[in-house]
Amino acid sequence: MSYFPYQYYREGQFEAIEFIKSCIANKYNLILEAVSGYGKTISVLSAALDVAEKFNLSILYLCRTKREIEHVISEAKKIQEKKYFPFSFLFSKSDLCLFYQTQYFDNLSLNILCKCLSLANQCYYRSNCYYFDQQILSKILHNLDNIESLLVQAKIYRVCPYELLKRFSLSSRLCIMTYNNFLQEQSFSNVSLTLQNSSKTIVILDEAHNLLDILSELYTFKIKESEIEYSVSEAQRLGLLKLAEKLSSFYPLFNKICFIIDKISAHEKSLIKSELTNFGFDKLNEMQSLLSTCLNTVFVSSNGRYPYVAKNLIKIYLFLNYMLLFLSCPNILLYVDNSDKEKALVFINVDPSEELNSLLNKFWSFIMMSATIGSPKIYCTILKLDPIKTKYYPINSKNLPKKIQVIIDTGLTTKYKKRTSELFKKIAGRIYTISSILSVNTGVYFPSYKVLQETEKALFSYYDLKRPFFKELPNMTIKEANTICSNFKSYKDKGAILFGVQGGRFSEGENFQEGEMRSVIIVGLSIPPPSKQLFLKMSYIKKTYSQNAFLISMLEPAIKKAVQSAGRVTRNTSYSVIFFLDSRFASKSIFGLFPEWIQKNAICTNLDSNSIEKLLDSSSCTL
Question: The pTM is what?
């Protein structure tokens, strides 16, 4: 195997690589399921590179998070040590822009600002790229490990890191980026430059169990009542008086649409179309034209360094586009959100499978891989994958179950109605007892940040925790996440505690190597709370697929999050232990959906401090 960098194969790995190669060579699509730590990334990369060389193809590797990109970079470098090939990676402009590094702009605003600065030749970072030696560029990128090292090098040479990566990707065999960066419409025109020919490109989709959620989130759009009002003031401030007049007449229409959606039906598109007809599609088209004309010209002030971004006008422009999509697409639905004490219209794509297939069908073939595909039949049905062109390949390691003890606590539940201060004290007691008995790094994964915060409060109020403590925070930067995770891993010989959320940064895609996490505590089932968005999605699934909407929309995703969190210990060669703190995990309907490696090693019992100690002493887990 010319691209496989290790001396030995793991059990079943050689057969898996050969199967992957055969699928790609024959233009079959593949769903690959293997437990975390098996070596999916290196297997797929080795196979894809081998076929790509033979047929002169490129490879696009999509990750869920920016941290996962660094893992793929590490694997690609190991392959390079055996057989060199050029690879690149790409982050969003908001991560890489040096010109506006002291200010925050969303990707849409930053792309337009970048365009304006480039036309005016005001960004010297970008201008310097034209004179940058390709050999120096290759040398710099060959030694990069993460985004921080890239930014350091770019500052030294005073060049635009985004432009460097984009240009280098043109000559790369492999390009690595996040789903968001690739799929967002505002950056796709830039990203597409990295692909010489999509029909000659293999796509690898990592953590593919999240695909529909990722796409649904990307295609969700929200506009508040106040933003309609602010857009009028913004247009007046910019001297766009004709546009301001048009926007003023738009406000009553917004309120009427809110009334219809909220009081009559979120599915009643004919009534919305009637209201827009009464308002006048010609007026809407004129408004769109005015917005389109002005948006590219009002962003940058004369000095270019402190621009004014007309975010409310952008919102109106996008709102009009989404409204037209809503009328023409049955899978685009609307609901009214009053959570911020003001009306807001929210567009959601309850079934982005059409968009996904439209994109994927342009490529040579694709590989979807995950540790938690779940039911392949349901997965393929919901994603609308072609059963003739798509192969499913599960990998089960026979050695893995011997290394892991699974304990399901039937003595508590985190159901919404049960969430009291006493429950959080009880959960904190379990965590304290386990961490006192096991002097190893322990990850604790919660169903939400709210449950995490309440448990943390109880833990430090009632118990004297003597172990180093780290926790995941909402909206952390990649640098903050790297620091927290590195500090936690450094305690692998002493034992620390990491609080995170199921489906969060540290529960999926984060690799914990030998000893870096030997115990995992899953606190509760991450079933989302009732919401308008959830009910709309469930109603659509039931109507369109005739499937169990609760299973597909709520239960199976929650189980996948729990299994992904549990999988953080599977890279250990020594024994590890997983605790599921919720009686629901022991029920037939949920336990039956667990993968075989969890089912075989599970003990269901009502835990307390004595039973925890006895279970661990009597098991073969020497921790």
Answer: 0.86
